Amino acid sequence: MSTGIDAISQRLQRVAAEARLPEVEVSSHYGTPALKVGGKAFVSIKNDETIVLALPIDRKEQLIEMAPEIYFQSDHYVGWPSLPTRIAAIGDDELKFRLIEAWQFRASKKLRVAFDAG
What we know:
The chain has a five-stranded antiparallel beta sheet with strand order 1-2-3-4-5. It has one domain (about 5-110): Alpha-Beta Complex (Aspartate Aminotransferase, domain 1), CATH 3.90.1150.30. Helix content is about 40%, strand content about 25%. With about 120 residues, the chain is of the alpha+beta class. Helix 1 crosses helix 3 (about 90-105). The longest helix has 16 residues, at about 5-20.
């Protein structure tokens, strides 16, 4: 595993912890490092430039339109609730919002309700 991927993994774990996301598991998804909730990946590291967020398809289109320098689509992810994201282009505040959103997309209703209740 490259140092770049290790650094990205550490950043994702740090930002997820800052967001106080419960029951986050450090794991892998299709052989790449990932964060999961309830056994489901909500973010994975594709390579040392790209992470992939789990988000509803309509939300992907909104984000790509809003910030094409950060979010993009590739043929592999068309039609899937997965949003490629340029890790170097996204700041920690924006990343925190997206990790929360991705976590909420994958977490059980019970966990989401508990998280929202704060």
